[in-house]
Amino acid sequence: MYQLLIFGFVIVLFALVIMLFSHSQSLQRFAVLEFMVLVGVAALWQISVTRNKDFLTSQYLSLFGVYLGDAQSYAGELEQLGAGEDTIDWNREAEDLQNLLDRSLPVTTVDGQQTRYLTAAVYERTGEKQYVVRVLHQPSETSLTEKDCTAYIEKLGDAAAQSKSVTYEISSQKTGVLVYTDVESVAPRYVLLTEVSLAPMQMEVAAMQKQSFLFAVTLLLVATIALALVIFLQGRQMHSLVRVAARVAEGKEDWDSLKDSTGGFWLESNEMRRLKNSLGQISTDVARMNYMKYKVLQNYYRFAPKHIEQILSKTSIMEVEPGDKARVTGTLAFVSYPENSGVNEEAYLRRVSREYQYLGEKQKEYEGILLSDNSDLTTMQLLFQKETRKALNFGVEMSMSQEDNSRGQAFVLLHHTSFLYGVVGDEEQAFTYLLSNEMKMLERYVEKLRSMGIRMAVTDAVYELVEKETTGRYIGYLEEGNCRFRLYEILDAYPAKERQRRLDSREKFQKALELFYQGDYYLGRNAFTEVLKESPNDEVAKWYLFLCEKCLNMAQGKKVSCALFSE
Q1: What is the rounded distance in angstroms from the CA atom of residue 12 to the CA atom of residue 238?
Q2: CATH class of 328-494
Q3: Same CATH fold, 328-494 and 95-197?
Q4: How many CA atoms are closer than 13 Å to the CA of 145, on its beta-carbon side?
């Protein structure tokens, strides 16, 4: 049984070690507490078994001491005989002792044989702790040797003589030794020894051990179940509290709405309540700090490029760091205003403020992203990532809103391209950048196009995408090195009358432009003159008209570039 218990204990201990090194705090707590419970129950069981065994043994041997009351009287008779002058017949005394023990002691079974005792001996004291055996009767082969009996007599003889009672000691797992003398003698001369079997007592001990073991196992199971239940309930509360705290931390919920969902179970500890109160206070403090951070960030964000986090595929502006960059494809809008020339600065700034407010509204409406603007507030760049049509509508509305010319007519240029956008700087200050050779080239012509009275123009990359949704006319191309862009004027950006004039003269303008490209400057001049008769405000036609006059006055054979704004 002990081997089975040891094996079970090892298995349980191994399981507890695995729990101890797990990542679950509940399992770790259960492992530690369960180990303490296991050790405590095992120690309690062992102490109980040992004490009960000692108690039963003591009671059993004490009972034999009562049985040997007559044998103590027999020891007195020996003392009287030894004091006389007659020699004691030890053979006869051995028989008398055997008969006495047979009458006094109960029958026990040893190795299948019934017996009342295993050893009966009489020793005579010859000196201090010196004894001589006079009678030694051993009916069983499992009895003590003569040397063992002598050792017990020397060990227990004096104690029996002094105590005037039966002294005993367990000789082995199966037998006990009782030593006694005459209770009336001051210095007993004769000491008697009787060895008895402990088999009946061992049966009672075994039964007691079984009962105590079942009790210990029951106690261990009850304690384990109770411990597991408490840890499970507390763990569930902790898990619920962690889940709620995580949702609060993520900003999905507020603490006041979720604190009751952590449970008010009767097993909730004072520590858990204090933890909940602390989390509530932390949540309040965090909310207050987040609000302050939001207000500060909101004020700073007013001076930063809008929606930069979207361009860089970040979830928040807080995630944007120097060195971040992204390749972006979309429609880029240049919005250009005339420079402030002699206008009262205060009035100019009021006008600009109104224009920026209107631009901000349209930017949100059409989902544009302001990338940059210059220091004199004359040119802005906006990105439309989703639909080119929205960029087109944005440009038309921006152009149509400038009927009040107190600052001057705005010009909008759209181009669909891919560019590199990113952030440079350090932890204290950072700047955005926009890298695109196409954009740099187009930016150099924005002011020139605006000065020609054009309200809105798009490159061929944009016109191909929105041709069916707007009305436009081809006005020429821009060329630098290997870069060449065809430009289309968007007629929808003009008031109805002006739009109709340019629409009516569109075919004549296109015919005149073909003549110019063919090098027929004379007929081209005449054709552009006809265009201006129908549309007197067409500054593009005027520019081509002057260019044709210039070409006619140039030396014959000199090569002329047909690109807009060429020298």
Answers
A1: 27
A2: alpha beta
A3: no
A4: 3
* Rama region for 481: left / alpha / beta (φ>0; ψ in -120 to 50; rest): left
Name 373's bridge partners: 380
Claim: this prediction has a pTM higher than 0.90: no
Query: How much is the pLDDT for 542?
Result: 92
- Residue found by looking up tokens 């944007």 in the block: 320
Query: Hey, is 523 helix, strand or coil?
Result: helix
Residues in the chain: 567
Domain residue ranges of the chain, discontinuous segments joined by +: 95-197, 328-494
Residue 360: which of 407, 397, 323 has the closest Cα? 397
- Domain 95-197: state its class: alpha beta
Q: Name the strands in the sheet holding 167-170, side by side, starting at the edge strand that comes first in the sequence.
A: 130-137, 119-127, 190-197, 175-180, 167-170
Residue-wise pLDDT tens digits, 311-332: 787 877 778 888 888 888 889 8
- Residue 140 — φ and ψ, nearest 5°? -115, 145
Q: For the residues of 341-361, what is the DSSP string, one character each?
A: -S--HHHHHHHHHHHHHHHHH
Residue of 552, 562, 543, 497 lying closest to 521 (CA atoms):
552
**For residues 416 and 442, is the Cβ–Cβ distance under 8 A?**
no
205: tokens are 């001990």
534, 505 in Cβ contact below 8 A? yes
Q: What's the pLDDT tens digit per position in 70-82?
A: 777 787 778 777 7
